[in-house]
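ugh ok fine here u go
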Amino acid sequence: MPRPRFVPTEERRKIVKSMSAYGVRQEEIATSLGLRSTKTLRKYFREDLDRGAIEAKAQVLQTLYKMATSGKCPAATIFWVKSRLGWREIQVVETRPAAIPDFVVAEDPEAA
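structure:
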């Protein structure tokens, strides 16, 4: 006897979208819905999977942007500049030739 055909509901769509936004793996989302494969999950919930991840990234970036531009979080500003503008810190190491001493130390063989 074949399994009954899967029918997605609005409630399940919200669950999939939220779990995708939180970064839950597709295998785990499928298991939580009682699906045997991720192929079935993608077949019925492709848009929810994509939108959840995209909206989560947008929200996090919006928060980072607000923190970076507020002037209250220098670390966020530095991170934003490095990641979005390609800036980087470089360390300059000066190398000089070894200095020539002004004197020479010699051992007196008769003193020993």
